[in-house]
Amino acid sequence: MATSLKVDNINNLKAGSVIYKQGENVDTVCLILEGRVIVYNQGIKTIMGVGSFIGISDIYEKVYMSNYIAFENITIYVFRMNDRKDLKKIMNFNKDYSGLMVSYLNKYITELSHITSSLKTIIDEVYGFTHELYKEYIDICKMNGHNISSTQIQSNEIKKYEHVYIIESHDLKYYEECLQLPEDIQKAYFSCSSNVTFLHLTKQAELINQLIKESIHMTTYGKELFEIIYSDKNDCIFNVLSKIALDIKHNGGSNDDVIVLLSRVMTKINITDKQFSEKSGCKIKFDKKSMEGVYASIIAATNEGLESKEDEINLSSNSAETAISELKDSLNQILTYAEVEEEEKEEFTQLILAFKELKDTTSINEDVRILRKKINETFYELYLKVYLKTCQDEAISRVVELFLNYGFVDESLLTTTQCVELYYIKDDNEEQSACKIYTIRQWLDEIYAGRKEPSKNEFDLEYNENLRDMKKYNKMTEAEEKEYLTNPSKKVEYEIKNMFRYNNRLANGQVSIFVPILHEEIIIRTMSKMFNTRNKINSEINHLLSIDYSAFYREVLYYDESKGIPKEYIVKQAFPDIILMPTVGCNSVMWQEIEGRKRDTSGRFLLPIFGETDLYDMLVKAVGRFRFELCRTIEGISWNDVREKSLTSDYSDYIQSYNKNRDLSEEQREKIKHQVQKGRNNLREIFVADYTTWIQNESQGYLRLNKVARVILATYCPFAKELRERNSRQPLFEEATARFVRDRQKKYKECVFSIKKLEKEHIEIPVELEETLKFYSEL
Questions:
Q1: Distance (Å, rounded) from C-alpha 693 to C-alpha 705?
Q2: Distance of alpha carbon 550 from alpha carbon 718, whole angstroms
Q3: How far is 754 from 762, CA to CA, in rounded Å?
Q4: Prediction pTM value
Q5: Span 1-82: which CATH code?
Q6: Which of 618, 658, 663, 727 could tie 733 with a disulfide, CB 3.0–4.6 Å?
Q7: In whole angstroms, how far apart are CA 637 and each of 128, 208, 415, 487, 631?
C-alpha cells in the first residue's frame, strides 16, 4: 500500500517505502530532492535520481503506470495533481521547474528507449533459440528412432514478435539529443512560456506511455516463449528432451547430445531470467530447483547407468540424493579432515563465506582483490595438509577427492546440478597412452614416491639447483637442504609452492582475478563436456602428430662401449607428461621441455582439467612452445647464432631482420610488425603464432604464412609425408620443402654410412640406429 503523503510539503521517507502503487489513481506528483527512487512494472525497471519529477507522464493515463518505491532514504516534495492542467501550477511555483520537468522526461524517454531495445534483443534471441531448439529436437528424435510428440511450440504456433506501437526512431533521437543540451539552457528556454512547456510535456508523456505499454507487451510475449522452453507442463521442450535422454540411456545408447542440449537450455533459461529481471520489473516464475533436479537425475542416471522410468524424473533419484547428501557441509568435511587449528579453520570458513556473498567475484574493487589474494594464500596451505594426510590413509571420502582433483571446497558455491555432475564425473580410461596424463594429485603421488623429481621453478631452475642457490645465499641451512633432498613431504611442499601454485592460475587464464576454488560463475558448459580426459587429450595429440609427426623426436647421442660403439647420433621420441590443473581454464602451459639435463627425457605440459576453449588449440600452442624451447636447450649458447643452423637461430634471424628482407612485401612486413607487438617482443610467442597457423591452416593447403616463415616451418616442423605430397601440388609448398628434402637425404646417408661402418667392423647394429634409419627413410 502506498505511503500517506503530506501534500504541498516536504516528505522524508525510508528506503522501501511505496510512494505510488501501479494502477492507483493519480492525485499527486513528486520532485526528488534527495536519494533515489526505483520505478518498475511488468515491463520496465529503472532508477530516478535527484531533480526527477515522478508521476508526470502518468497524469495522461489518470493512473500510475508503474510502482514507485524509495530505493534508499529519500526526501521529496509533493504537489497536488487533480488534472493535467495543474502542471502549469508547478511551472508557476518555480520558473526552473519547467526546464527540470522537460529534462526529466527526456531522461526517462532515453532510458525507456534503451529498455525496449534491450527487451527486443532478448525476445528475438529467445525466439531464435526456441525454433532452433525445436529443430534439434526433431533431429534427435529421427536419429534415435523416437516419435515426434506434440510440444507447445506446435500447438501454440508462436510467431515472431509484432510491435503494438510504431515508435519512430527519429522521435527517440530528438529527445535523446535534447537531453544533451545544458540544463541551464533548457531552464531558460522553457521558463519563457508555460504553454510551450505544456505542449512539450504532453508529447513526451504520450511517447513515454507508449514505450511502457510496448515493453509490457514484449515481456508478456517473452514469458509465453519461455513457457514453451520450460514450464511445469509435460509438453515443454525441456521435459520432452529429459524423457528422451533417459529413454536413450535405458535402451543402452549414448545420450551425450541430449545432455549437451539440455545444458544449453538451462543456460538459456537462467540467462533469460536474469535479463528480464534486470531490464524489466518482471521476474519469470519457474521452479529452478525442480529443473536442476531433473537434470541432476539425468546426469546421475547416465553416469551410474541406472534405469529410470520415462515419466518419473525428479530430484528424489537415489543417485542424486546420494551425491547431495555426501557433499553436504563439504568445507567443514575438508577442514576437519586436514586437522587444521580452530583459528585457521574459522579464518578459511569466513573467507569462503565472504566470497560466496560477493555480487561480482571478478570485481577489481580493492576489498575484493584482497579477499581473492587471501583465498589464494590459504588454499595451497590447506591443500598441502589435506594431501599429506591422504598419503597416510588407504581410503578417502569423495569430498576430499573432489577437493584434490578439482579444487572443490563448498557445495553452496555450485548449483545442485553442478554438484551432482561433479560427484559422478570420472575418467573412465585408467590406462595411460603415449602421453602419460596425471591429475595434480596423481602427479604429487609420483613426487612423493620418488618416481619423479619436483619441477623447475618459475625462474627455470631445476630442483637441486634451486636448493643449492638457496643454501648459497643463506636462505637455507645445510640440514634443511638435505631434508628437502630426501624427505618426500618436503618435495611435495616444494612442488605445490613452486609449480602448482604458479601454474594453476596460468592454466585458468584470468590471472588478475583468479581464485583456485571451483565456483558456479566459471563453469560455462556441462562439466562432462569441459572435462579433459586421457582419451580426449591423447586423441588430440595423435591428431596433431598426424600433421607434425616429428614434434616429440629429437637427436641424441648414443654409445655402447661394450659393443665397441663410441658415438652415434640417433633419433629418439619422448612424449611429454601432461598434468591437469584443478581449475576451469583456457590456457596450456609448456612448463619444461626435458627433465634435468638429458635430452631424451619427457617434458611437462600443464592443462586445466576443465577446458573453456578448444583442447586441440591449447595443445597446438603447447607443442609450438615445446619445439622452440627444446631447440633452444639443445643448441645452448648457439641457439640464436645464425652460423649454426637451427629452428631458433633461423627464426631469430628472420624476426630481427624482417625489415630488410627483400623476400617480404611491405604489407607482409607490416603484418610481422603487428605480430611482434602482439607477442610483446617475446620470440617464442611470436613463433607460436606462426606455428599455429602452420598446423591449422597451411597443413590444409591454405596459404597464410609468408615465404620466409613457411620455409623455416617446412624445414624444422615438416608435415607428415601424405600432407607434404598433397600440398606439393602448389609450387610455393614445393619450394618451401626443398631444404627439408636436402637435409633429410643428408641425414639418411649419414645413418646408412654409420650402419655400414659397424657392419664392416662386425659390430651388432643397435635397434636404436635401425629405428633412426627407418625414421629418415619414411619421412
A1: 7
A2: 7
A3: 12
A4: 0.67
A5: 2.60.120.10
A6: 727
A7: 59, 74, 53, 35, 11
